[in-house]
TrEMBL record:
Keywords: Membrane, Transmembrane, Transmembrane helix. Pfam families: DUF4181. This is DUF4181 domain-containing protein. It comes from the Bacteria.
Length: 118
C-alpha cells in the first residue's frame, strides 16, 4: 500500500474515531465561534499562524527532519490551543477530550510519516 493508501485509511480512521469518541462521551458538537471566546480564538489562531509562518523558512533549512518537526510542533500547538479553548468556552461538554484524542493520533502519524512514505 502506498502513501496515498495510508493517508486515505488514516483520514477514514480519524473520522470514525471522532464519531466514536463523541458518541461514547455524549458530545454534541459545538463551535467556539458560537461562544463568547470567538474573538480570542480567532486572535490566538492568527498569532500562532503568523509565528509559524515566520519559523517555516528556518525549518526548510534543516531538511526533512526540520520540516517534520515543524509540522509536529505546529499541530501540537494548534490542536492544544483548540482543546484549551473548548475546555474553557464550551461548558458542560467533553468535546475537548475528543480533540486531545484526535491530536495524539495526528501527531503520532506526523512523527512516524517517514515509515509510511518509504
Amino acid at each position: 500500500m502506498g502513501f496515498i493508501g495510508y493517508l486515505v485509511f488514516f483520514v477514514i480512521f480519524m473520522f470514525s474515531l471522532e464519531k466514536i469518541s463523541n458518541t461514547l462521551l455524549g458530545v454534541e458538537k459545538r463551535k467556539i465561534s458560537e461562544t463568547s471566546g470567538k474573538n480570542f480564538n480567532r486572535w490566538g489562531k492568527g498569532i500562532i499562524l503568523v509565528i509559524s509562518l515566520c519559523i517555516l523558512p528556518f525549518a526548510f533549512t534543516k531538511g526533512i527532519d526540520g520540516i517534520k518537526w515543524f509540522w509536529v510542533l505546529y499541530t501540537a500547538i494548534i490542536w492544544g490551543f483548540q482543546a484549551i479553548m473548548e475546555w474553557k468556552y464550551i461548558k458542560n461538554s467533553k468535546q475537548y477530550v475528543t480533540t486531545i484524542i484526535l491530536s495524539m493520533f495526528i501527531i503520532s502519524f506526523l512523527y512516524n510519516i517517514e515509515h509510511f512514505i518509504n
